[in-house]
Amino acid sequence: MPQCSSRALAENLPETSDFNGNYNYLKKLIQDLRVENSDSLKKELFGDTEPVKPFSKKDMKQLFKFLRKIEHHYEELSTPPIPSELEKSIRSRAKKDWLPWELEAIQKIEVWREEFEAKKDKARNLLESTLEKVRRGEKLG
């Protein structure tokens, strides 16, 4: 085993080879490994920096306000140009029977989906790069 839990391994294996004894031993071993590895995982993600000072009340308010803005903006962007029920209704019929405005509506929804996916990818990349800056301790701006 590449990693070991000193507490769990210090205990002897159960004398009997019954299922419950082995199960309890493995369960304790896994729990101890999980506890030991959580600290190393945090260090790997955030580095060996000093503890982060807690946010002030003002900082928390600003953070929540910013998160609400992001949520509102996302809701606006993720609202399709036509209702999904209308799209399903149009698509349920043969394409040759569509009216000109229905064809235009379907084209709009397809363009919107492509743009939305591109914006999602861009936002995901921006979030990842921002998190990386936070991990390195760089200032955001």
Task: Describe this structure as you would to a colleague.
This protein has 141 residues and is an all-alpha fold. It folds into two domains: 6-46; 57-136. It contains five helices and no strands. The protein has helices spanning 6-10, 19-46, 57-77, 84-91, 100-136. The radius of gyration is 27 Å and the shape is flat. Residues 1-5 have low confidence and may be disordered.
Which helices and strands appear, and what pairs or packs with what?
Blueprint: H1 6-10, H2 19-46, H3 57-77, H4 84-91, H5 100-136
From the structure above, extract its key features.
flat, 0% strand, 5 helices, 141 residues
**How many domain units?**
2
Q: What is the distance, rounded to the nearest whole angstrom, between the alpha carbons of the first and last residues?
A: 45 Å
Order of helices and strands: HHHHH
Helix content: over 70%
Sheet having the most strands: none
In brief:
The chain is built from five helices and no strands. The chain is mostly helical and 141 residues long.
